[in-house]
Structure formats: C-alpha cells, structure tokens
Amino acid sequence: MTMKNRWIALYVENQVGVLAKVSGLFSGKAYNLQSLTVGTTEHEDVSRMTICVTSDDITFEQIKKQLNCMVEVIKVMDLTNVPLHMKEILYAKVKGIDAGQKAEVFQIAQVFNVNNGNVKVADIGEDSILLECTLTEHRNNDLIALLKKKFKHVEIVRGGAVAVEAISTSCR
Length: 172
Description:
Blueprint: E1 4-13, H1 18-28, E2 33-40, E3 46-55, H2 57-68, E4 73-78, E5 84-95, H3 99-112, E6 119-124, E7 128-135, H4 137-150, E8 153-165
C-alpha cells in the first residue's frame, strides 16, 4: 500500500475541547499528524482545520469515516486531489553571521521571492537575521536546506499549512 501525504479540511464547531477530541482521534489510533492548523471562519461559531496525515488509502478512508462520526464535526472534505492554494508559515533565524553573510541571506530571500514567493526580513540584529516566509511546504523545505548548507546556526519555527480550494483548476 502506498503511503503518501493526504489533506483534509474540517469544519467544526468552535468550542472548547474540539481540537483535543480531533487530535485525540489521531493519537488514539496511532495516526501521525504531519500538520494541523486551526482558525475561525467567517462564522465565529465555526472553525476550519487543515490537516495533513501520511497514510495509505484504507487508513485514510477510516480516518474520514471516524471524523464524520464526531458530533462536533460539521463537514469533512478530502483535499488530497483537489486543486488548491496552499501556504505554510515559516520563520528562519540565521544567527552568528557577519555583514557579508547578511548580504547572502538577503540574496537568498530575493531568490525565493520569485514565482509568487513571499520571503521578507522580519527582524535584523547585529549578527542575525529573521526571515518570515509564506511559501509552499516544498519551497520552505528548499529554503531550509539551503540555509542549513550555507550557515552554521539556523533556527526554524514552522507552522502548519493552510489551504483553500482553487476557483480555477490551474493551481496546486
């Protein structure tokens, strides 16, 4: 069976304990969450969760069925093969660098801004730079790999991805 990343969007009641119940379902069945983000929607009493889980087809179907059985879950949407707009937030702190290395960090940020990227300098210190990035997971992985290759002290803080279904079919 093929293991791959699969994406689910859940609309859930925005109330205390719902996140714990949903994450408890995953931990109770030993499903590993790759990413989980939650935020309110245009309706204050409804939240949307974007979840990435690595699983095979059979396990993924079980996950969707179990989520659908939860009282607090309003809607389950499988986004795995749907055209999406998806970004994840990442902060990368490059520490212990000199002026020449700072210039190199600025150049890297510029390169990653090509093709709808969004990498900006969020903060700068005497010997460090903090980058704020909203890229796809793949582009964030590329950025992290490059920074770790070029610099000794790189600190990464990563948020989960958020996704919305595309209006047109030319996205992913």
